[in-house]
Amino acid sequence: MKKADAQPKIEKKKKSHKKLYIALGIVAIIVIVLLVMFVLPLISKSEPAVLIIDKGSVEINHGSGWSPAASGIALRANDAVRTLTDSQASIIFFGSSAVRLDQNTEVKISELLADKENTKVSLNQESGRIWNKVTKLSGFEDYSIETPTAVATVRGTGFDSKVTGKDSDITLIEGKLAVDSIKKEDGKKTIVSSIELNENEAAKVEEKALDKIQKSAAVEDDWIKGNKQKDSKFLEDIKQKLRSKYATYISIAKAQYGLTDADLDKYFDEYMAGKISSEQINDALKKAGIELSV
User: Residue 106 and which of 76, 200, 247, 278 are 20 to 30 A apart at CA?
Assistant: First the structure.
């Protein structure tokens, strides 16, 4: 009797695994389209970083002093951008990740590396407040923000970073985030303490207490809420471009697996939010007999 009872559970488990592999197979198809036909051309042909002035006055420093900036200009490593009072700007990386600067904010692109083997962005935030929406579509191996007292390192996430004096407040809304408190002395940087934030958690790093990073629940103010709305539109614009450009491939996937647009949206969103691991994708590719070479 026990064996008979156990049989349906085994079959159910098999069906569950089969459903998972089919779902991941769809993700694999989407990932192939994104990597081979969208992300790599973006990295090789588009400007790695572009400044967009959302409102007010914005200045740029190429290394020889500050001057008024124009919307749509390309940015390079070591370029610095600052917003003045009642001004806001965005830096778009590879057309698929956005860094939004609030008023009275200064950031510097300390590292900007763009190729198939290693795509990396590092920003130095000197003052003010920035919102980071980092998607996996950008192909980042590493993305980090350094403030006077902290370094935040991510792979696919949305978070807020605020500098007040030399204190840092970091609020994570989605994904995972590694936060290190750092001490800068004689041109050297030393990690004092480290924590990991999960969704809807915040960290406070104070210059006077670098050894004690304070963790708390995230609080969404108007700045964060507004950026979440902008993120939704930003990602929807990306999806619309993909739907339009690769309509044939998407139609094949929908027909073969009986998917709806809502299903595809779900997979897009999960992949871009970093909720689907490379191991899962590789496993799905192997089971589908597909070898991805980029």
Answer: 200
